[in-house]
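ingest -> validate -> predict -> emit
validate: passed (alphabet ok, no gaps, 272 aa)
predict: started
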Amino acid sequence: MPLLVLLCAMAVLPGCVMLSDVTVSQSVESGKGIGSHMATGFIDKTLKQGDKAFPYAVYVPRDYNKEKEWPLVVFLHGAGERGNDGLIQTNEGIGPAIRKNPERFPAVVLFPQCPKDSAWISVPAMLDDVIERTRKEYRIDEKRIYLTGLSMGGYGTWIWGAVHTDLFAAMIPICGGGKTDDLKHLNKEQVTKDYGTLEDRVARLVSVPIWAFHGAADDVVPPARSREMVELLRAAGSSIQYTEYPGVNHNSWSATYADEAVVRWMFSQKKK
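emit:
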């Protein structure tokens, strides 16, 4: 899993507001930012489920307003960003790409955080609830909701995403795979949701626009994991796209999210 540099995370404290990236500690129920205006930038939030609290973050474009509908991107981070700080999942993957080129991401972007010792497939209720609350809090274009993730989040995109094909207009799984057994070493929580068989998931995914990515030299998650899903989907009739980066190890996400053509492709997809 990626080794994280935490200096930036340590410099941003809950409740602080910065000119470049607004970070506001706020309840998800409030729907309010600073003063009477909707906060923009990267915003810290918390979802409560019974006695459990799940921190997460939402990126809101600077020019966001409720006069129009906005796409929603759901980003599932890798194992290295698990925890309960609500921040580090924005520092790897799509978050840095947004900070570098915000004009390429005219969308609300949701950054849930998976708890330590869990995998995405063991927290389906949290994912369902945090997405639903974001859809209610912001004016979202229901035909342009997208799912993407890296490494453990790539697995989440393939597996958890397969049971939510009615929601997503497109998916971008990066350096992941489609088998639940691959996640056993990461997950100490019991998986209570029935994700069906691999064949079941392939059948559900076949009609979803998907562009998958992997590094050919990946020694953490072998590229064979993505190749297998691509082969199964193509055999089932999918028009899935697949890009494998020659000589690239596990970090195939930086190149993917920095590729303007990939981002344009994602936002061009729309549910019928």
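The chain is about 25% helix and 20% strand.
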